[in-house]
Amino acid sequence: MERRYTPKCGNVFWLRVSKQNLMILSKSSLFKKAQTSLQYRVIGLVSLVMPSATIFGVVVFTYLVYQTEQDAWQNRQREAARSASRTVEVFMNQVQEYMNPIGLVDPHHLELAPEPMPSLPSQNQAPSEIIRLDSKGQVFAAAHQPDETPVPSNLFTIPQSSWFLQAQAGQPHVGEAQISATNEPYIIPALPAPDNGVVAARPRMDVPWDIVSEIQFGETGRAHVVNEHGDIVAHPDFEVIPARTNIIDQSEMAAVPEKPDRQWNGVHENLEDLVVVGPTQPIKIGDRIIFTEISQTEVFSTTRQALIVLGGGIPFMGIIVMAGTSHLPNRTILWPVAELRDGAEHIGEGDLDHRLDSGRPDEIGQAATAFNQMAANLKDREAALAQARDEAPAANRIKSQILANVSHDLRTPLNAIMGYTEMLQKGIYGAFSDKQQSVIQRILTNTRNLTGMVNKLVEQARLETGTLKLDTAPFAPADLIEGVQSTMGESAREKGVELITTIDVNVPLHLSGDFNWLYQILANLVENALKFTEQGAINVHIYCPDETHWAMQVADTGSGIPLEAQVYIFEPFRQVDGTATRKHKGAGLGLSIVKQVTNQMGGQVRLESEVDCGSTFTILLPLTPTQETNL
Amino acid sequence: MSSPFGLIIEDDEDLAMIFEGALTEANFDTEVISDGQAALTRLAEIVPDVIVLDLHLPHVSGGNILHQIRADERLANTRVMLATADAIRAEGLRNEADLVLLKPISFGQLTMLAARMHPSHTP
Asked: What is the pTM for the complete model shown?
C-alpha cells in the first residue's frame, strides 16, 4: 500500500538514480584493487627509475670526482716536476757560471802558475771539483772542495771520455751518471774552452739528488730523472743509480725520451711494480726528463672514499626516497581516495551522517566537499522520503475516509433522485402523460449514467488505495451472460444493435472467483461496446481457450480504436477522443478498472481492433473450476 | 396469511421513503426507523422478515446493529439487506449480511430483491 501511495514520483525516481550511483561508488572490491594496483604501479615505477637514476648519478659524480682528483694530482705533479726542473736548470747554470771563468783563463798563465784557481766556496751550488783541460785532455789546472777527493783530475781516460770529446767538439756536455771508485754516483758537465780545451766539473750530486728526493706529494708521490737513453740518473732510492736501471723495459714509458716534446702522462707500473700515475717534465739542460709518479691507490683515494660514502648512502637514500615516494602519493592521493571509498561505503550502508575532511585546498578537498554535500542532500531526501512514508498511511486513511464520505454523500441524493423518479415512472404518485413519461425516462437514464460514473470513480479510488478486496466463491458463468442480457439487452435493442450472448459447452458449469467484479468487468466492456456501436451486433462469448484458462470476450462492430490509442485507453481518465467536443461522455475509467481488476485476478486483457471494423476485448483468466455445483 | 414484515433502518428521509415504497410494492408491511439506538430497542420487540439496513446511522452504527441481529437467535430467520454507499465498510460485513446493496439502489431492484426473499408473497 505504501508503495502505491508514494506521493512524489520525482523523489522515487531520484532515489533509484541515487541508489545506482551509490552502487557504483560502493563497488569496494574493485576500488581497493584499483588503489592497490595504483600504489604498486607508483612504487614499481619508482623502483625502476630511482636505482637507474641513482646509479647514473653515482657514476657521473664518481667520474667527476675521479677526473678532478686526477687533474689535481697531475697538476701538482707537473708543478713539482717543473719546479724541480727549474731548480736543476738553475743549479746547472750556476755550475756553468763557475765553469765559464775557468774556461777564460789563459792556459799559458795557468802553466806559469798552476794554482790560479780560486778556492771553491763551500756553497751548495759550487761544484765539488773543477778542472781545466787542454786540447789533448791534459789537466793543467784543478781545484776541489777541501773535504772532497778529486775524481776527474785523476782519471787517465779523459781524452776518450765522451764529455771531453763532446765539449772539445764545441758542444756543452751535461754528463752522465758515473760511479766513483768510492762507489758514489757523479756527473761531469763539460764546456768547450776558447783554446780548444775543455772545462769540466763535478757538481755536488747531493744537490740535484736532494732536489729530486725532495719532490714529494701526497704520501707516495715522488720523482726520478731519466737521461736520453732511458737510464735513471736521479732517484730517491739511492740504489737505483748504481744499478744502471733503465726504463726501456717499461714499455709504456720507453717511447717518452724519443718523443719530440718528451712529455707523457698516464698510468704505468713503476720499478717496484706498483701501479702509478704521473706526467713527465723535460729538463732543458741536457736531455733529462723528470718522471713523477704517485700510486694510483692514493690518486683515487678521494674517489674511493666518495664511492664508499655514496655506496653506503645509496641504500639509505633509496629507503628514504622509496618511503617518500610511497608516502607522498599515499598522503596526497591514495589515502584521500581510500577515504572517499570508505565514505561511499558508509553512505552505501546507510550511514548518511558520515562526512569527509574537506579542509584541503586542492581538488581532493573539493571532492570531499562535493561528497559531503551529496551526503547532506541524501540525508535531506531520505528524511523527506521517511516523512512521506510515515505520512502515507495516514494520508491513505484520510483518503479512504474522504472517499467513503464523498461516495456516501454523492450516492445518497443520487439514490433519492433515482428512487423518486422510478416511483413516478411506476405511477405510484399517479399517472403521467406520454410526454411526461418520456421526460421521466430521460431523468432516469441520466441519473443512471451519473451513478455509473460515481461508481467508477469510487472503484478507481479503491483500486488506487488498494482497498479493493476480491472474494473467491463459486459462481455460474451463465449468470454473467444472463445478467448482461437482462440489464443491457433492452438498451441495445433500443439502439438497434443486437446483443448476442453465448457460452461454450466446454466451460465448466461453476467457476471460482469474485462474481460481482467479474460481472462489473463484463458490464463495463458491454457498456463500452454499446457506446461506440451504432449498428451491427455485440457478441458476448464465454469460452475456454485452453485447459488452464477461461475467457470473456466482447466483440463489437463499432468504430474501432486507432492503434496509437490502444496504448493508452487502459490508463485512468483516458479516452480515444479526449477532446472537449467528444461525442461520447464518461469519466474514462471503465477500461482502466477492467484492466486493473483483471490483473488483480491474475488475468490479462487483450484487445484487437481496427478503425471502422470494430473491437474485440478478451479477458483471459486462470481456470479454477469448483467442485461445488449447487450454488 | 399476513404480509411479510420489512423494517427499514435508514436515517435519510428520502431514501427511507423510497425503500418503504419499494417494500410496499413488494407487498411488505413496513416500518421505518431513522436512529440506530431506536432500531435496537425496536428489534428487541419485533422479528422482521426483512431488514433494509443503512450503515451510517446516528448513535449506533448499522454494522453494530448487524452484529447484534446475528447474535440474536430470535432473529435467525431475518434476512438483512445492507443498503449503503460505504463500499469499504460494506466489504467487511459481506459475510454477515444476506445481501449488500450499494447505493444508489434502484426502486425496481429493491422491489424485486425483497420479493425474492419472500417468494411466497410475490405480488
From this structure: 0.41
